[in-house]
């Protein structure tokens, strides 16, 4: 009887071993199928694989002509990215909890083992590592390429790396870290450590005092600003946690980045998109486009802060060197300066020939604001409105006013009474009023200006009467107590205008004082421009057009620029819609030229502080802006 039991037990064990072996074979096949090396060319980025399928690389296609680059090429070998969706518990064990790579760990930033296996950790207050005091607040530990351990800390708004000696009893080296670094990875080989600045991924050698750009995140179809952790075991394969918000839950997409080298050609043409101040959503849009294309890929590049202060001059230099980018992110860019430069492609024919969009696709005021010399040089996916409400007891039913009328009414204010709100300072109102009137003083066709006029002196006098610093008070309380007369309202949605008007008893929509035209400010959320040198213009248009469609503006946090989408918003707004239409119909486009705004603000600082008169200040502005325009023309 016992013998029979042993035989039965042996058969069960054999079956179990067989099942385990079969499962191991299947898992190994899946794993090696996913991680199968793909041959890639030097200095070329790779295709993105959205599903873990084996990739065939036979019959390579010939390399297209190279696209002029706005910045140097990455110095490393090319990159391969495999991506898949996965759930991750950010506050738990630091381990992927589901998906193809379930069980892969991302070590805690503040805990690490040294070469001898000793567990090292950061103190709870972040001031020491295993008893060794560190200057600043420690955010993470790194294992360097040479085996030493370093602590990353924040000191006086800067990051530094404190490197410990091999016996781990003292700090033997302190290194400044790149201010742009967002996250780090342990180093290997010649690289002491790796870091991401959200745009590119770099390897740093402390011995050589150098760093190499390994790849651009969008060049491997990953949104770099969403990379929250990087894990590598050999300096060749990098696993990255890429976060995104979905349905109010923090979910993670995990990307496997493999650096490889080979001699075969890439089939995809790179289009360079240059940005002076990229928003997080920009990379999301690029990655979505890249993953839907087989022939082209957009790669995001940025310009440094010094060049960003005068982006038109920087672009002219690139054009002279034959490195003008294919696309330009218009965020923070002086649109009219760019439109006048001759570097931008007219988008009118693309809009006319589009399968879905037409010249009437945009809200008329938006389309008009984007036109320069009857040509369309850029796009805008939305807009906001800024206006001014005031009490009828003072404004007597007025629907607009000049600077002289404003002065006449506000000059009767008693002591301790203010015209505008607590946050409405000289600098903030100068931005609004200068933006509304800049075309009155500058002719971009010949780069001439005329600021030494009575009209501009009136604007300076208006600004000077405003406070230099915020008051830090509540507008609603100040209005009700009649300490504050006017309310400057920023309108992003229909309800914003109604809410602002409701703060004033018997309100009047008065707008800003004007020289001519409407008194409301129309500020465009500008998106993209295509350059005349763009290598693949039809492909670039496919990227640009997405944000002009109704579907592309469905979830807009501001007024959509698509006419159909805008009307859909107003259709659900009831009586609010009429107020929005009134503001929009009496609006002036914001020139939004930060270079000239800062020039005027700096030039007039002494006058605003009480020195000299408005005529002298206007003459100084004329000289300063004339010199600036001459530099652009040259």
List keywords for this structure.
single chain; 634 residues; alpha+beta; 6-stranded mixed sheet; 5-stranded mixed sheet; 31 strands; 30% helix; globular; disordered N terminus
Give a concise summary.
With 634 residues, the protein is an alpha+beta fold. It contains 19 helices and 31 strands.
Describe it.
This protein is α+β, with helices and mostly antiparallel strands. Helices cover 30% and strands 25% of the residues. It is built from 19 helices and 31 strands. Strands 23, 26, 27, 28, 30 and 31 form a six-stranded mixed beta sheet that branches. A five-stranded mixed beta sheet has the order 1-2-17-16-15, with no helix packed on it. A four-stranded antiparallel beta sheet has the order 7-8-9-10, with no helix packed on it. Helix 17 packs antiparallel against helix 19 (614-633). The longest helix is centred in the N-terminal third of the chain and has 33 residues, at 2-34. The model is unreliable at 1-72, 82-93 and 261-265 (pLDDT under 50).
Number of contiguous helices: 19
How many whole angstroms does the radius of gyration measure?
30 Å
The mean pLDDT is 82
Sheet bearing the most strands, described? 6 strands, mixed
Distance between the termini: 103 Å
Helix content estimate: 25-40%
State the shape. globular
Q: What low-confidence regions span 5 or more consecutive residues with pLDDT below 50?
A: 1-72, 82-93, 261-265
Q: List how many beta strands DSSP finds.
A: 31
Structural class: alpha+beta
Proportion of strand residues: 25-35%
